[in-house]
User: Fold this.
Amino acid sequence: MYAFEYKRPASVADAKAALGGDARYLAGGQSLIQAMKLRLSSSATLVDLSGIKDLQTIRMDGANLVIGAMVTHAAVGASADVKRACPALAELAAGIGDPMVRNMGTIGGSIANADPAACYPAGLVGLGATVHTNQRTIPADSFFTGLYETALQPGELITAVSFPPVQKAAYVKYKQPASRFALVGVFVSQSAGGVRVAVTGAKGSVFRATAIEAALSKSFTPEAAKAVKMPATDINSDMHGTAEYRAAMISVMASRAVAAALAR
Ligand SMILES: Cc1cc2nc3c(=O)[nH]c(=O)nc-3n(C[C@H](O)[C@H](O)[C@H](O)COP(=O)(O)OP(=O)(O)OC[C@H]3O[C@@H](n4cnc5c(N)ncnc54)[C@H](O)[C@@H]3O)c2cc1C
Assistant:
């Protein structure tokens, strides 16, 4: 790891001010520190966000669930508010990685990192969430722009994510057994806004499976999801699974997610 300067501001304004030059925000360090240790990433300064109390709350804003950027996966998984408003989101968080990753990793760090196999991107897009930053709000549908890429501008800091009310939802992932990242993960939801089906792990970035959404809008059943044959075009292919295999798994995971959502 290359040497770096360390800063720990106590407010969002101070964090932004501390970021000048070759600096990056540090959340749980579960992706960033690993990359720095391997010398895949280096920064002259790390601005640790863990001292900013405003980023660490979970609250209801009317009917919307609002989760601060520095809330850990473990805290989301254990939160009574999250379990009441959206049990599927609590389960998604509780299924990330291992206890160390869940106790250190944060929702803000996860979505800023935009790993193509991460779970939260599916949760945000699958629920039609909104990302709040120190500059603006960004709909989840336009936040994830590519492989490890987001709509964030340099220095822009995620402060929270808000989730609208949902009637039925579930997330099911087929795990990569070593890391527990999603080989294919599917988040399904039914709400006043309609049906959403978001897929992670299968392409360079999270995407909506519109053919499955159309089928589920007519009939919200596991059979309807499973009957959709997803094309293998542009689907990831590697030593863990071919494009054809992953494409088939999208419909299977979607049907299991619908079954889980209906069973609540
Ligand atoms: C062994 C292992 C298994 C894992 N398994 C899973 C899994 O099953 N599913 C899953 O989804 N994830 C998994 N992860 C990733 C985990 O969820 C991490 O939480 C995530 O990668 C990054 O979160 P972090 O809070 O540690 O962010 P960091 O590593 O601290 O930061 C990541 C990036 O986000 C930026 N950043 C952080 N916070 C903000 C902010 N508020 N605003 C703007 N930019 C910010 C940083 O500058 C950095 O570029 C795993 C990780 C490991 C090490």
